[in-house]
# Entry
Amino acid sequence: MDTLTRIPMFPLTIFPLPGEMVPLHIFEPRYRQLLRDAEERDISFGIYFNHALNSSKLGSLVKLESVIKRYPGGESDIIVKCQDLFHMDTLFRTYKEKLYPGGDVTFWQIDLHAPVSQKLYEEFELYMNLLKITMVPSPVSAYHIANELNLDFEAKLKFVELQHDKKEVFLHNRIRFQKHILTEADKVKDVFHLN
# Structure
């Protein structure tokens, strides 16, 4: 049976995938309190994907990476990194005695070190080379590749709910599509350059 865990929660209309780093601007008092707790107690918190597309009630477990800027009025710009995904069971207005929300969640326990097939890796490497990125780490996970493809919300939700082998097919198709766009953009650039 899946275990429910209660965690601090930050409902937003973003859906980071594991391994993805996301900038956030913190300004509300309740989330300034959450930031203090994340800094002082080194806690992770959930970003519940608060969007009509999210019928599966998914969210992202994130951890504070760094505080980029602090403003005189108490606001902050921060970077968080997604560590895992979760299914939301119940969202609460407050977490324990805190101002910010909380939620009972079931973690997916995603393995970010599970490598993709050699075929997908090679296709991803070619795609990154088209972007002029030659230092591609090896091995890479399916989530690492998904993060490089700038998927929209709908594509992210579709991707995460696929079985592992279907994730690879999805990524193959996305890489091919992105490579096609890059190739066509280069052709257009060359045409305008010649005129």
